[in-house]
Amino acid sequence: MLATRRTLAAAIACAALALPLSSVAAKNKAAQKPQKERVVIQVSDADPQKWNLALNNAKNVQTDLGADKTEVEIVAYGPGIGMLKADAIVANRIEDAIAAGVKVVACENTMKAQKMTREDMNRKIDYVAAGVVELMRRQQQGYAYIRP
Predict the structure, then answer these.
(1) How far apart are CA 43 and CA 145, in angstroms?
(2) Fewer beta carbons under 10 A from the terminal one: N or C of the chain?
(3) Measured between alpha carbons, how far is 51 from 94 in angstroms, rounded to an integer?
């Protein structure tokens, strides 16, 4: 009987201690911002239609889910990097996407291989050392991966 009372007392004490902890956990969870939907889009083709499709995909994600609830990044490397030049056919659309909150990045490895400089590029884009590594890291961070 004494052991049963001790077990009951221990269970009540544990429950009493757990209640404040669960209350703190609930408050912390409520204080956290909801996770944004994240997508990384690969463009490694020099085809303007592929670029327009990628830009349409980015815009559609923002429209459907809300631009403030999404993180969209377009990574260009290989032949696709030419569309990030300042005089590219899609330059205006790229600037519009960036203004809407889409991050557009160029692979510096590709730029070096093609003897391109930042002066050649759209002034609003960002840069990463290696486009493929950027895609790998984003996927490891939970980004959805799209390749139009």
Answers:
(1) 11
(2) N
(3) 9
Query: Where in the sequence is the domain holding 89, given as residue range(s)?
Result: 37-146
CA distances to 25, 36, 50 from 57, rounded to whole Å, are 37, 17, 10
Using CA atoms, how far apart are residues 94 and 48, in angstroms rounded to an integer? 12
- CA pseudo-torsion sign 95, 96, 99, 105: negative
Same domain, 67 and 135: yes
What is the token pair recorded at 31? Answer: 């204080």
> Rounded to an integer, what is the distance from CA 27 to the centroid of its chain?
27
Distance CA 72, CA 74 (A): 7
Residues 6 and 28 in one domain: yes
112-140 per-position pLDDT tens digit: 999 999 999 999 999 999 999 999 999 99
Same domain for 27 and 42: no
Rounded (10°) CA dihedral 93, 96, 102, 104: 50
